[in-house]
Write a structure and sequence with these properties.
This protein is an all-alpha fold. It has helices spanning about 1-15, 20-40, 75-80, 90-100, 115-125. The radius of gyration is 19 Å and the shape is globular. The termini are far apart.
Length: about 130
C-alpha cells in the first residue's frame, strides 16, 4: 500500500507545475551566480556588452560566434586563424587552460578549473548571447 501511495504522489508531482518552476528558478540562480563569477573572474578584461569599453573583446553573443571575429579588436594570429566557434565545450576548455587550448594567444592564463564555476559562467554567457 505504501508503494501505491508513493507512486500516486510521484505521479501527481510529475504532472504538477512545480518541476517547471524549480527548473526556471534553478536556471535563474545559475545565471545570477554566473554573472557574479564573471564579474569576479572575467570582467577585468572583458565587458559583457559591446557598448561597454574593455581591454579584451566583449563577450556578448559569444556562444556560436567564430573566434577572433569581433570588429575592432586586434586578435593574436593564433586565435584569429583558429577557425573555432565558441561552443560551451570550447569555452570550457578555454576557461580551464587557454594557453593549452590555444597556444600563441595573447590572453593571460586564467585557469578556472572548477567545473561548477565554469557551468555558472557558461549559463551567464548563454544569457547574454542571442538565442
Amino acid at each position: 500500500m505504501k508503494h501505491i501511495i508513493l507512486s500516486l504522489g510521484l505521479a501527481a508531482f510529475a504532472v504538477s507545475p512545480y518541476p517547471v518552476f524549480a527548473e526556471s528558478t534553478f536556471d535563474k540562480v545559475k545565471v545570477e551566480a554566473g554573472e557574479t563569477l564573471f564579474y569576479s573572474e572575467c570582467r577585468r578584461c572583458h565587458a559583457p556588452d559591446s557598448t561597454d569599453p574593455s581591454y579584451g573583446p566583449p563577450l556578448d553573443n559569444i556562444l556560436g560566434r567564430a573566434a577572433g571575429t569581433v570588429e575592432g579588436y586586434e586578435y593574436s594570429e593564433a586565435l584569429a586563424g583558429s577557425g573555432i566557434v565558441w561552443t560551451p565545450a570550447a569555452l570550457r576548455a578555454w576557461m580551464e587552460d587557454n594557453d593549452g587550448f590555444m597556444p600563441g594567444t595573447k590572453m593571460r592564463h586564467v585557469g578556472i578549473e572548477d567545473r561548477t564555476v565554469q557551468d555558472f559562467i557558461l549559463a551567464y554567457l548563454g544569457s547574454i548571447s542571442a538565442q
